[in-house]
Write a structure and sequence with these properties.
The chain is mostly helical and about 300 residues long. The chain is built from 15 helices and two strands. Helices cover about 75% and strands about 5% of the residues. The two termini are about 35 Å apart.
């Protein structure tokens, strides 16, 4: 479009409008309102209150830099805790090695990382199945009653308020040390967070598509399966993949209280002041988390 014609249209619109509208169009900055000032003052006061409550002092951080550098220097060079791992060969292949399976050096922490990923897979799967019913009851367009909606939302809030490590302590006391307690903690501890996300995904669907399916004579269940589920499924699947990534990190923390996973190994290195082995383990964890993140991002790009 010609620039002169566009400017001419703008001038015509300004002439046709009231003096107030012309003044608003010519104003370079938005008008400052009392409500804007009040919101700015409230935000500023909130941050001042937060800084005072956290006792944030930049000079303390500056004075602690030598301690940080000292700790980081103790992490290098990274060292891997290796152990000989016998290759699982069939019986006929053992004869080639004189009946003794050959062994290769393998990082000990890799077994714990694999266990952590296994915990995240099973815990995430259980959390999805447990959170979906709560998501349906907590969505305003699928809940059977307002009281059910309010009660479900309250339960989800209570669940989110309890840290995962508390669930880990409870289930470790119930089933003993090991990854099973961590799996239960991940599954139960994720219900509140995922139930809310699933409810938001269900509430974001277009009701016109559901009404169109009902207009064909479909019942409520058919309208939900063919109208609501296809719309909410991409977001639900994406949120589930994000939960898996988060559970990998959470499973690392849960190991500190005996719930299995790589956290137990990290806690051992810290207790024994084996900081170089700790750094070697962290490098392998970073590589594993990066690979999981890339795979998850690829899957989400295919879903959404």
């Amino acid at each position: 479009m010609d620039i002169r014609a566009l400017n001419g249209r703008r001038a015509t619109a300004m002439e046709a409008g009231s003096p107030q509208s012309r003044e608003e169009l010519l104003r370079p900055l938005p008008r400052i309102k009392i409500s804007t000032i009040l919101v700015a003052v409230l935000l500023f006061g909130m941050y001042v209150w937060g800084v005072q409550g956290t006792r944030a002092r930049p000079e303390e951080l500056i004075s602690g830099i030598p301690n940080i550098l000292n700790f980081l220097s103790r992490l290098f060079p990274p060292e891997l805790d290796l152990e000989n791992y016998a290759l699982p060969l069939p019986a006929f292949a053992l004869n080639w090695f004189g009946g003794v399976a050959p062994s290769i050096p393998f990082p000990t922490v890799m077994f714990a990382i694999i266990e952590t990923v296994q915990m995240a897979i099973i815990g995430t799967t259980l959390a999805i199945f447990l959170a979906l019913p709560f998501g349906l009851l907590a969505a305003s367009n699928t809940t059977p009653h307002t009281w059910v909606y309010s009660g479900t939302r309250m339960l989800l809030n209570i669940n989110r308020a309890i840290p995962d490590i508390i669930f880990a302590l409870v289930f470790v006391a119930a089933v003993g040390l090991g990854p099973f307690g961590g799996v239960l903690a991940l599954a139960i501890g994720s219900i509140g967070f995922m139930g809310k996300l699933y409810a938001e995904a269900i509430e974001a669907i277009d009701p016109q598509q559901v009404l169109a399916i009902k207009a064909t004579g479909a019942g409520p269940i058919q309208a939900f399966l063919y109208g609501a589920v296809p719309q909410a499924l991409p977001l639900v699947a994406s949120y589930s993949l994000l939960l898996f990534e988060n559970n990998v990190r959470s499973a690392t923390i849960l190991g500190l209280v005996g719930a299995g996973g790589v956290g137990f190994v990290l806690n051992k290195y810290l207790a024994l002041f084996q900081y170089q082995k700790l750094m070697g383990a962290l490098i392998l964890i970073i590589i594993a988390v990066t690979m999981i993140d890339r795979i998850s991002a690829y899957l989400r790009s295919k879903i959404i």
